[in-house]
Automatic annotation (TrEMBL):
Pfam families reported for this sequence: PIG-L
Stated name of the protein: PIG-L family deacetylase
Organism whose genome encodes this protein: Pseudomonas putida (Arthrobacter siderocapsulatus)
SUPFAM superfamilies from the UniProt entry: LmbE-like
Length: 252
């Protein structure tokens, strides 16, 4: 999880919750996104992005018996630069443990979930986009349905993973959908940058939302930050509040 520069922590209102555009977004059934028997692949730039982007959808697809593959591009160990409390060495181990616990809280079948760890370095994915595209392509196959971060989400790593995932899906003959994360918390709402014509809602019931929220709280390192050196929580309150909404939005 990485904060986007466009997120203003001094004005942490849920600017999109009252957006009239949200009311007009059409609902889509998960079966319309992932056909029966198809494998769903979720590509996360940083640990935790898989839960924030589509933790609810992952639960629904698992319940429906779809094979699942998770690709974690980075290990998130550079999330707290300069921190003694959350050093890169500690985070390289701790954040994997956080992800395991988060996926367990989602109720995903850990015995059958295929989980690929890329080992790429945080904050530098745009510089290695060609290698990243090749890496992702290696783990896709025709007929897969791929979900990743929106290529215009506003965070350089999220954007790079979105672009690389789209290219890899095209090469592999897989379907591809984008999921916005930080875009919902940009400082401006009516700039016309959100592709509302592509937006679809995936409805989530109360229990699915609760498990998703519970899973997010497994990322203790991202909830704590490091006040001693001025690092705020990388999962801010505004994002935790959004996690309680009874839907997820996908760009089709």
């Amino acid at each position: 999880m990485k904060p986007v520069s466009q997120l203003d922590h001094s004005a942490t209102t849920q600017i999109w919750n009252s957006a009239p555009q949200l009311d007009k977004v059409s609902v889509i059934n998960p079966q319309a996104l992932v056909p029966p028997g198809a494998r769903a692949v979720v590509i996360a730039p940083h640990p935790g992005d898989e839960v924030v982007t589509c933790g609810g959808l992952l639960q629904l697809l698992s319940t429906q018996g779809h094979p699942l593959q998770l690709i974690s591009v980075t290990d998130g160990s550079a999330s707290h630069p300069g921190s003694r409390q959350w050093s890169e060495k500690r985070l390289s181990v701790f954040r994997v443990q956080e992800s395991v616990e988060a996926l367990r809280r989602l109720g995903l079948p850990m015995h059958s979930l295929k989980w690929i760890r890329g080992g790429f370095v945080d904050n530098a994915l745009a510089e290695h986009e060609v290698q990243l595209t090749r890496f992702i392509t290696r783990y896709l196959r025709p007929g897969d349905v791929v979900f990743s971060t929106w290529s215009q989400d506003g965070n350089s790593d999220h954007d790079a993973v979105g672009r690389a995932s789209a290219k890899a899906a095209t090469i592999a003959g897989a379907d591809f959908y984008e999921v916005p994360v930080w875009a919902w918390h940009w400082a401006t709402r009516d700039s016309g940058l959100i592709p509302w014509h592509r937006a679809r809602k995936v409805r989530l019931d109360t229990w699915t939302v609760a498990r998703k929220s519970h899973a997010t709280h497994a990322y203790a390192s991202q909830l704590d930050g490091d006040p001693a050196i001025g690092i705020a929580p990388l999962i801010p309150r505004v994002l935790l509040e959004r996690m309680r909404l009874p839907y997820e939005i996908v760009f089709v």
